[in-house]
Amino acid sequence: MAVVASAPGKVLMTGGYLILERPNAGIVLSTNARFYAIVKPIHEDLKPDSWAWAWTDVKLTSPQLSRETVYKMSLKNTTLQCISSRDLANPFVEQAVQYSVAAAHAILVDSGKKDALCKLLLQGLDITILGSNDFYSYRNQIEARGLPLTPEALASLPAFSSITFNSEVPNGGNCKPEVAKTGLGSSAAMTTAVVAALLHYLGVVHLPLSSNTSLQVESEDLDLVHIVAQSAHCIAQGKVGSGFDVSSAVYGSQRYVRFSPGVLSSAQVAANGQSFQEVITDVLKGKWDHEKTKFSLPPLMTLLLGEPGTGGSSTPSMVGSVKKWQVSEPQKSRETWRSLGEANSTLETQLNVLSKLAEEQWETYKSVVSSCSGLKSEKWMEQASDPHKEAVVKALLGVRDTIVKIRFHMRKMGEEAGVPIEPESQTQLLDATMNMEGVLLAGVPGAGGFDAIFAVTLGDSTSNVTNMWGSRGVMSLLVREDPRGVSLESEDPRAKAISSAISSVHIE
């Protein structure tokens, strides 16, 4: 029986750079772009002598990259050995498999389920990974087809389209990643989906069903997925990052404060011969002190993401430059960080105020948002015809003022550190976006750079923004906020994609 799990991509709206250090918080929105992992057995029947086997088979298929990688897994210490070309290996999936199976061993060893686990492993693990189109840039394919850079053109591509590789720059300097991405955190979503699917398949956790809107699930199960996915992701990356991308892939939209990096120190030194099971047992016992608080955009607001098509930025090197600047200019950098931290927390407060107003005075909130959606911000105050409406307008304008401050401090930090956090081309684009009717805010997500821009629009003002972006060569993605985290799917997403494509065919 196949298990299908999915995990969402993310947009870090506030907290870029600051989120690397406790106790700074960031607001991270999970999206409807999801990564899927499908796990099923390779062999339906076990041979009588299979109990004596020391190795089992693992097969990883990535249809979008037309890749299939075959491994042998040691049943004794859960290590994988690649028996096809190493060029095809995916370190994120490899670590996800090794850590998930090790966690299953560590947790189920005393529970009487050890035989069932052994049987499942001896049948082999057939793993398929699929990412929503929004994780990747399809600009080249759309331009090659002579189509306009519109969301409609993007929507016309088949689901889970083949991914193109960037060509290497001459003299070996491959400055862009090999696959053109849109910065939604594909590696974190992929790692989380694989870990979740495996832990569910092996009987260690029970995931919430995606069709269950209340999504009440044992938090211990999600916490286990989170710990295993963070461990695998950090080891595959070769460093302990802030972990916000994995946290949002597991739990959905949230306000996040990172865990203390020391909790993964045993995983980092695992190279000295400790087995995966010893490492994961240590990590599971560690003090995971991250903080996550439920958060999502207030009602009648839409998250938009645009891909400017100016080539990706390297987040690690930008982070490195900012850290160097912090060391060389401690006084100045502390001041900028303090101002940024304050502005980030003000933005969060204002958005929470709007959510509360929507809850308590829905009709008033709805009418203000609806009228402001057709107006530029300088006209919004004219809609405040009574104190209740005024409260909504003031909160909306408060959000706008705060994002302007955040952008100012992010630009200043970039100038000081000598990295393009909000490059001039992005500044012009974001200013033009903020100047449109019904736009609440606009900015560069995460570490900034040339990868993407985001906007939050009110009511029905979305298409004006996507049209303006298109006229400036910016590809509007189909991404929207979806506050759900990791979940169990009822079927292979390709089957769903085919049936929805058939239902959209119009027969005269």
UniProtKB/TrEMBL annotation:
Occurrences of domain GHMP kinase N-terminal (ranges): 162-252
Pfam families, alphabetized: GHMP_kinases_N
GO terms (BP aspect): farnesyl diphosphate biosynthetic process, mevalonate pathway; isopentenyl diphosphate biosynthetic process, mevalonate pathway; steroid biosynthetic process
InterPro entries, per database record: Erg8, GHMP_kinase_C_sf, GHMP_kinase_N_dom, Phosphomevalonate_kinase, Ribosomal_Su5_D2-typ_SF, Ribsml_uS5_D2-typ_fold_subgr
Keyword Protein biosynthesis appears in the UniProt entry: no
Highest taxon above the source species: Eukaryota
Family of this protein: Belongs to the GHMP kinase family. Mevalonate kinase subfamily.
Protein name (database record): phosphomevalonate kinase
Natural source organism: Macleaya cordata (Five-seeded plume-poppy)
